[in-house]
TrEMBL record:
Keyword Cytoplasm in record: no
Single GO molecular function: metalloaminopeptidase activity
Protein name in UniProt: Aminopeptidase
GO annotation, biological process: peptide catabolic process
Domain of life according to the entry: Bacteria
Limits of the Peptidase M1 membrane alanine aminopeptidase domain: 392-593
Residues spanning the signal sequence: 1-20
GO cellular component: a single term: cytoplasm
The organism of origin for this protein: Erythrobacter litoralis
Length: 809
């Protein structure tokens, strides 16, 4: 087990009251916490494969796996039969006695680790969840989960591995371990050598809406064709090489559902035999359009290359005709793809297909075909927005990383709400069919479709090209992608109700008690959405807009993407690159945001205004008199005055003396002599400093802050002055370096600039949890009076069952 895994295990096993690793390291006998301690002690040491700047080392290597696959879809049996040849190149410096393959379909076996360890009522499945037993109430089972249990009992899922042989037919010994398979080689594979082997397999396709998977079929029983129609989405559908890396060796971690994929790049040649009325969308380039498309469809595809708007390749009318009839045979579609880490595809007779060319002048792929495939249920929502969102995504993401690296970018509608693969994505939202036959959609469905297309197409950049390890670190791709999809969303239309990715969106999660550090392994995260998507995105927004600044952040992120394009980065590579390229020490930021569960809550506790003592009695004693007169009148004196109680000295003038005309602040010659002596004793520089201060008569304020959330952050101040002017001031996070719990800061403003009020984080940039303690003076907290009636009792003992039995209301 690597060092970082041990450290994370320590973190997750620590009692709740213990300080999180990397935050609470005690360096003194007191309670000092060094939140700016360097992160190098946590990160793996640089080496010849990954250097200290975060770039690939001069001996960086990665394996290659090429596939030639032939697959056949049996629509009626919901079964896929396939065989393939794998060519594996050992680019590592190591000799490998065996090879490990991923068998992700085995996750659907009833005895799989994922199935056996899914807790009742807990997270871990996509789609509806089991209702958890809580508060002493009886446990409940939802109909969705009951249907899933029945489907698992009625069907045998998982891979049927029929044959594993060398290219010459020699059988290879193999051992299946859950979602993994070890293939023992007849001779160890030395560094630089290549091996070819063949696998024949089959599996029953899950119904996605029943099993809650990342792929599967969706049945439409009400379609006009007898027996209905289907959409098939295929992902994790073939045995894939387990990654072998410099930092872990074989990545043979069981697939449990949350941690997605760790994969090798390679070239693919895939043929799919499907019913002859199906339309297929897949990773790669369609190699045989003349065999599967009509002449009219091929002409439309050609015209779409230079179109200003999406062009139908398969029209709604053609798709409707396919839905009404049945297949007369099969067609074989062939796709080829170079340097991709995975291969996915979709197949259905229901698909409408449109396309539009996107130009990237000077890029390796100067023309990218943006395409969408959807059934009639997608309606105008898909026609208007899907392909347009694909094009918009490429324009935005390329600014932050690199030109889109492949010739196609596709959005396919089906039962999967949102998943990504090289050149192809699965996206879920649809329209609603009304009684009059029209189709409409809500604002939330519009936002969902645009947002999910941006997000999933964005994944073709991260991690389909910047090939991070999703099985361990979901946040490495989901966090960057959520950040960029929010940037793209606000550039699409800032008035749409985008959510989840800005700092202010993450406050409820960051203050909750069920969060874990971002650096937690993917399958151990309780709330994956806010932990791996939202919180990292919020962190990057803060880095870009507040801590580093847009120019340096954008440069650093682009450098990270450029360095690790078609390579496999780790968290250390990302952290080090962002620091090295931006020129900013960010160890405190990574430590706080990614290794702890602290949140932001900076309180402005007090403001003291300082006045300069001039030592001149004619000035200072007058000011002290004015201060005394400004104090509230003594209560007893005020009540006496209001009641007309007589004052003795006013009614008896003969008892007055010197002190009735002069008070304690009366200036005497001795006071003036002392002042002159004070001036004479000053050094020249002291006299010069005092004279300048008297002349400037500046306003001095000491602001006292406390860090109640534990997460150190820059202190952003919104200053309002008595003359109505305002000013924004940002104090770097390093102000907390010697005391992360409380600090004070002196602010000086010129004469005439007196503070009226101050607010911390006035624009909600930093995810500050309690905005009320940000204001000084404290403001009145606005709330509402809500009119409501107490709900009627729902207990059956409280209902008039007698009246109900007689048909009365």
């Amino acid at each position: 087990m690597r060092l970082i895994a041990l450290l994370l295990a320590f973190l997750l096993a620590a009692p709740a009251a213990a300080p999180a690793f990397g935050q609470g390291i005690q360096q003194t006998k007191g309670d000092f916490e060094d939140k700016f301690r360097q992160l190098d002690e946590v990160l793996p040491d640089p080496n010849v494969y990954r250097n200290a700047s975060g770039a690939p080392g001069h001996q960086y290597w990665q394996q290659q796996a090429d596939y030639v696959i032939r697959a056949e879809l049996d629509e009626d049996k919901r079964r896929l039969e396939a065989e393939g040849t794998v060519r594996y190149v050992n680019n590592s410096p190591d000799t490998l006695p065996w090879i490990w393959m991923q068998l992700d379909q085995n996750i659907f076996r009833t005895d799989s680790m994922a199935e056996m360890t899914t807790t009742f009522g807990g997270p871990g499945r996509r789609g509806p969840r089991i209702d958890a037993a809580s508060g002493g109430e009886p446990a409940r089972l939802s109909l969705e989960e009951l249907r899933r249990q029945q489907a698992m009992a009625d069907n045998e899922y998982g891979y049927d591995i029929k044959r594993v042989t060398l290219a010459d037919g020699t059988p290879l010994s193999h051992t299946i371990v859950g979602t993994l398979m070890r293939i023992d080689l007849p001779a160890p594979l030395a560094s630089g050598e290549t091996v070819e082997f063949q696998i024949e397999w089959a599996f029953n396709i899950v119904e996605e809406n029943t099993i809650f998977a990342r792929s599967g079929y969706e049945h439409f029983p009400d379609d006009p064709r007898k027996g209905g129609n289907d959409i098939f989405l295929f992902a994790q559908w073939f045995p894939r090489l387990v990654a072998y890396s410099d930092y872990e060796g074989w990545h043979n971690k069981e697939f449990l559902g949350r941690g997605e994929f760790t994969l090798e790049f390679g070239d693919y040649d895939v043929t799919m035999t499907v019913p002859d009325d199906h339309v297929v969308s897949a990773t790669g380039v369609l190699a045989n359009p003349g065999e599967v498309l009509t002449a009219a469809q091929r002409q439309r595809l050609e015209s779409a290359r230079d179109a200003d708007a999406p062009v139908f390749i398969v029209t709604p009318e053609e798709a409707a005709a396919n839905e009404r009839t049945g297949p007369t045979g099969t067609k074989t579609w062939r796709f080829t793809a170079e340097n991709v880490r995975d291969f996915a595809w979709g197949s259905s007779r229901k698909f409408i297909w449109d396309a539009q060319g996107h130009r990237q002048p000077g890029a390796e792929n100067e023309l990218v075909m943006a395409m969408s495939f959807w059934p009639k249920e997608g309606g105008e929502l898909w026609r208007k927005y899907s392909t347009a969102a694909v094009v918009h995504t490429m324009k935005v993401y390329s600014r932050f990383s690199f030109d889109y690296p492949y010739p196609f970018a596709q959005s396919v509608n089906g039962p999967v709400g949102g998943m990504e693969y090289p050149m192809i994505t699965f996206n879920g939202p649809r329209t609603t069919l009304n009684e009059d036959g029209t189709r409409t959609y809500s604002l939330s469905e519009k936002v969902y479709l645009i947002g999910v297309v941006i997000h999933e197409i964005g994944h073709i950049y991260f991690p389909m090209t910047v090939n991070s390890d999703e099985r361990q670190w979901t946040w490495m791709d989901e966090g960057i992608n959520s950040f960029l999809d929010s940037v793209a969303g606000y550039e699409w239309d800032p008035d749409l109700p985008w959510t989840r990715s800005l700092p202010r969106d993450l406050i409820p999660y960051m203050t909750s008690s069920d969060q874990v550090p971002i650096m937690t392994q993917s399958d151990s995260v309780l709330n994956l959405g806010p932990n791996a998507y939202g919180k990292p995105s919020a962190a990057y927004h803060i880095l870009r807009d507040t801590v580093i600044g847009r120019e340096r952040f954008d440069f650093a992120l682009k450098e990270y993407a450029r360095r690790w394009k078609f390579k496999r980065p780790t968290p250390a590579d990302f952290f080090r690159t962002m620091e090295e390229a931006s020129g900013t020490d960010l160890d405190w930021f990574w430590r706080g945001w990614f290794y702890t569960t602290d949140h932001v809550d900076i309180s402005l506790d007090a403001i003291h205004r300082l006045r300069l003592d001039t030592e001149n009695p004619d000035i200072d004693l007058k000011r002290r008199r004015d201060e005394l007169l400004g104090e509230p009148e003594k209560v007893g004196v005020r009540l006496n005055r209001e009641q007309g109680v007589p004052i003795w000295v006013l009614e008896n003038p003969g008892v007055t003396d010197f002190y009735d005309e002069n008070d304690q602040f009366t200036v005497t010659p001795k006071d003036r002599e002392s002042y002159e002596s004070f001036l004479e004793e000053l050094e020249p520089w002291e006299r010069q400093t005092l004279d300048r201060a008297l002349k400037e008569d500046a306003n001095y304020y000491v602001l006292s802050f406390s860090n109640r959330g534990g997460l150190v952050m820059p202190i952003i101040l919104g200053l309002t002055f008595e003359d109505g002017s305002t000013q924004r001031m940002q104090i770097p996070a390093e102000i907390w370096r010697r005391n992360p719990k409380e600090v004070s800061k002196l602010l000086v403003f010129p004469k005439g600039k007196r503070l009226a009020s101050v607010v911390v984080d006035p624009n909600w940039e930093t995810a500050d949890a309690d905005i009320e303690n940000n204001h000084y003076p404290r403001r009145i907290i606005e709330s509402r009076i809500e009119a409501f009636k107490s709900p009627e009792a729902t207990s059956r003992t409280g209902r008039d069952l007698m009246a109900e039995s007689q048909g009365s209301n």
